[in-house]
Amino acid sequence: MKIRLDTQDEYMHPLEEASNFNESMYFNCYDPKERIGGFLRLGNRANEGHAELTTCLYLPDGRVAFVYKRPEIDNNDAFDAGGTKFNVITPFEKHETTYTGKICLLDNPLEMADPRKAFTENPWDTCEVSWTHVGVSPMYGGEPVNDDDTPMDSDSGFARGHYEQHMQVSGHIRVGDEEWIVNGFGLRDHSWGPRFWSAPYYYRWLTANFGDDFGFVVSVITGRDGRKHMGGMVLRDGEYEHIEHAEIRTTWKGDDLYHEQIDATARTSKGEYAIQGSVLNLIPLRNRRTSPDGEAFMTRISEGMTEWHCDAVDHPGYGLSEYLDQIVDGKPVGVDG
């Protein structure tokens, strides 16, 4: 399959006719010295009349500061909605991201399983996030195209074009009267094309940085037919090694079955990596959708800030473990997968 990626893809793509056309960027970060991090995401769904805005901050005292909203938009001209703004400074090299607005403070982040109740019963305060992201890796991914460079049809229903990059991140986070200077590492991605959150049956997306010279993304996506797509990459000494095979084993916690411990292996052409992860803090997010024929879908996306260990490195790394599951009969479908 031919993959195309050029600097123009760092900017906005033409708005397509699909009602669920989505273009989104995502940036995560963690500073192990300050013990603070999180992620910003903005997804433009202009044909539906809104963007999807998420700001999620894992604070040093165990609280999570979180906001999700759907600001109105009528075009796909920029990532600039609801107080979030993303700017490309130098394609493939440098980005600036900001959020300014209100945010909900959760002593118990698991309360977000019921967002209406969580947003109503927990306090809100002002928030400002300002980060500068500088690439420490090559680009990974792009858009599948035909021989004439036209986009290839995709029936995945999740994202046609997608790429990722490990980053060094600096800036600050301010919540109420508290402020933290951030100097850490993270990962960014950019996706475009039709998207339904209910399209994958379940997936596991593990991101980690151990500094500016080692990191990984392990991705395992399982379809409703049981087939698994394994991918991702290992960043080592400025180069990416493509992951050819991955296995993820999970220890679950509580009646609602949230991931707590992760044991994974990832194989590239240069060897196999043993990975262990311990979730430091977790917040469950959800997405509801009703299909045109009336079928209701409930998707849970559990976002765990995670400390990682890998046999190739002698110190810990940090990043996100994102577990997406469809919820069927009250249970995440990937628990036994």
Query: What assembly state would you assign to the polypeptide chains in this entry?
Result: single chain
CATH topology (fold) name of the largest domain: AttH-like fold
The pLDDT mean sits at 95
By CATH reckoning, the class of the largest domain would read Mainly Beta
Give the strand tally: 22
What does the main sheet amount to? 10 strands, antiparallel
Shape: globular
Helix content: under 10%
Name the structural class: mainly beta
* CATH architecture title of the largest domain: Beta Barrel
- Count of individual domains: 2
Structure in words:
By secondary structure, the protein is mainly beta. It folds into two domains: 1-195, AttH-like domain (AttH-like fold, Beta Barrel); 198-337, Beta Barrel (AttH-like fold). 2% of the residues lie in helices and 62% in strands. It has one helix and 22 strands. Strands 13, 14, 15, 16, 17, 18, 19, 20, 21 and 22 form a ten-stranded antiparallel beta sheet that branches. An eight-stranded antiparallel beta barrel has the order 2-3-4-5-8-9-11-12. β15 (228-236) and β16 form a beta hairpin. The longest helix is centred in the middle third of the chain and has 7 residues, at 115-121. It is globular. The model has no long low-confidence stretch (mean pLDDT 95).
Task: Outline the fold blueprint.
Elements: E1 2-4, E2 21-31, E3 36-45, E4 50-58, E5 64-69, E6 80-81, E7 84-90, E8 94-106, H1 115-121, E9 124-135, E10 140-145, E11 161-175, E12 178-194, E13 202-209, E14 214-222, E15 228-236, E16 239-242, E17 245-253, E18 258-268, E19 271-290, E20 296-310, E21 317-328, E22 331-332
